[in-house]
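Fold this sequence, please.
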Amino acid sequence: MYLCCARTRAARGPIKPMPLLLDEGDDWYEIDALLAHRTSRGKRQYLVKYKGFDDFHNEWRNENDVTGVATTEYWATHS
């Protein structure tokens, strides 16, 4: 299971699943896949697809918001 912090997620679109974990006010959602990467303002970001969400909810997240195992697996197939 790979998680992503969603502290800045705005409520968008259709009803979304409940977060898996709540930690000091931050919601964490399970990652289905990392679809792409980019660098924005000197920081690496990943395009995150969340498990249980449709593609409308995919979003770019900073590297520090995505757990390490997900990024390790992403780079194993995208080198």
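Helices lie at 68-77. The first strand starts at residue 3 and ends at 5.
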